[in-house]
Amino acid sequence: MKITSRNANPWAWVPSVSFSQGVPYVAVMLLSTVMYKNLGISNADLAFYTAWLYLPWVVKPLWSPIVEMFGTKRRWTVLMQLVGGAGLAAVALTLHAPDFFRWTLVIFWLMAFSSATHDIASDGFYMLGLPTQRQQAAFVGVRSAFYKLAMISGQGGLVYLAGQLMKATGDPVHAWSVVFALMAVLFLALCGYHQLMLPRPGDDHRHTAGGALWQDFVHTFRSFFQKQEIGVTLGFLLLYRLGEAQLLKMAAPFLLDPRARGGLGLSTSDFGLVYGTIGVCALVLGGLAGGVVVSRFGLKRALMPMVVVMHVPDLVFVYLATALPDNLALVSLCLAVEQFGYGFGFAAFMLYMVLVADGEHKTAHYALCTGFMALGMMLPGMVSGWIQQQLGYQQFFIWACISTLPAFVLAARVRIPAEFGRQ
């Protein structure tokens, strides 16, 4: 039976849509790296080609008017989930092909574009399905929690499952085919569920004045680059995570590579437990702690200490690459410290984007900020594998730590109102 209620209970759809936003992102940006490493792709190739997958998130503000002009946000949300589920199934099938690397990259590209489009549609749908600010505020934490649950389920649970299947069968292709097939079944089930359960807000309709919409978009785009000190702002958005962009792309290869090649030699299951579960939980806790600190002291006072807490723990990778400890508990502690610091400092970055976007076109300007943020991850990530192969893991992680210095310089230059972020 088709549900046509305009006022469906938010608990019936907000958690599941938030989870659905996380699943394809995890598959494209996280699982692909581990999978390609298990299947023998070199660090340089997997870093270069998977970093390109950030591009749809970089440019998604440019095609957001298309979502407005053609179809409702509800329809776009369900359609992109259907495309994502089909993409996951296609990855499972093409892994057995001789030229699997090329074909799976094409599919991941399509999934990345559908995921970015899904983000545009579902973010807009939340504001229509939860029409009051009180409702939107009440479900902010729910949305974040279920998005993070998708990350833990994917980067932790599914990677662990892939490792166990590899251990049982000795066949990584079969293991990852099963994992992506399971994800496809789950995602297509969510798509069907949302077709039935998503509300149908009266304000959810396509924008018929296409010419006016594009004029508004051009005006909004131009006004973003007319902001005061936009050069410093763009530098901060692009370089705040310069070190992290390289480090994160090489974290999985380092943890999985054998000790003879300078890695820690973790099994895929151990990687899923240590980095995908413990690490992500520490990341979430760090983000919560960062939010508390900013609300207590304000972003202006808290920014530089939060930059320090974010980047100094990167040194644990230098330690791990030097000492190569075989104690899983010690490795887990080191990664938890680094991920906690990353989450802590990233909270400041997110709030800074809110500050930059504040004004007449805050939603569109925030989307542009996130586009530059994604570009700041994409470009360094593309070359990180090549740099690692030239330097080795130990020297690469030292270089990644040196690459954090622009964040300190720019954090000292950005202008922030004294009370911004403080409650």
Automatic annotation (TrEMBL):
Membrane topology is: Multi-pass membrane protein
Q: What domain of life does the native source organism fall in? A: Bacteria
Identify the InterPro entries for this entry: AmpG_permease/AT-1 (IPR004752), BT1 (IPR039309), MFS (IPR011701), MFS_trans_sf (IPR036259)
Which of UniProt's keywords are assigned here?
Answer: Membrane, Transmembrane, Transmembrane helix, Transport
Q: Record's Pfam families?
A: BT1, MFS_1
Q: What is its main location?
A: membrane
Q: Does the keyword Nucleotide-binding apply?
A: no
- Where is this gene product found? Membrane
Keyword Transmembrane on entry = yes
Mind telling me which residue stretches traverse the membrane in this protein?
Answer: 12-34, 46-64, 76-97, 103-125, 175-196, 272-295, 302-322, 328-354, 366-387, 393-412
Q: Hey, what's the signal peptide range on this chain?
A: none
By its UniProt entry, which PANTHER family does this protein fall under? MAJOR FACILITATOR SUPERFAMILY DOMAIN-CONTAINING PROTEIN 3, SOLUTE CARRIER FAMILY 33 ACETYL-COA TRANSPORTER -RELATED
The text of the family note is:
Belongs to the major facilitator superfamily. Folate-biopterin transporter (TC 2.A.71) family.
Write the protein's name: AmpG family muropeptide MFS transporter
